[in-house]
Amino acid sequence: MDLEALGTSPLGQLVPIVVPPSAHVSGPAEYFAYVPESLPDELTLETATWLAATEAANAIGALNNACAQLPNPGLLIQPALLQEAHATSALEGTYGAMRDVMQARLPGFEPKTPEVREISAYIDMADFAFGWVRDRPVTIGFICDLQRILAEASRYPVRDPGSIRTEQVYIGSDAAPIDESRFVPPPADDRLHAGLTDWLRWTQTNRRLPVEIRAAMAHYQFETLHPFADCNGRVGRLLVLLQLLVEGRLAEPVLTISPWLLKRRWRYQDHLLAVSATGDWNPWIQFFCDGLREQCERHLVVARELLESLGNLRDELNERHWTGTIGRVAADLVDWPVVTNSSVQQQYSCSGPTAQKAIDRLVELGVLEELTGGNYARVWGARNVMRLVESL
Question: How far is 46 from 41, CA to CA, in rounded Å?
Answer without folding.
Answer: 17
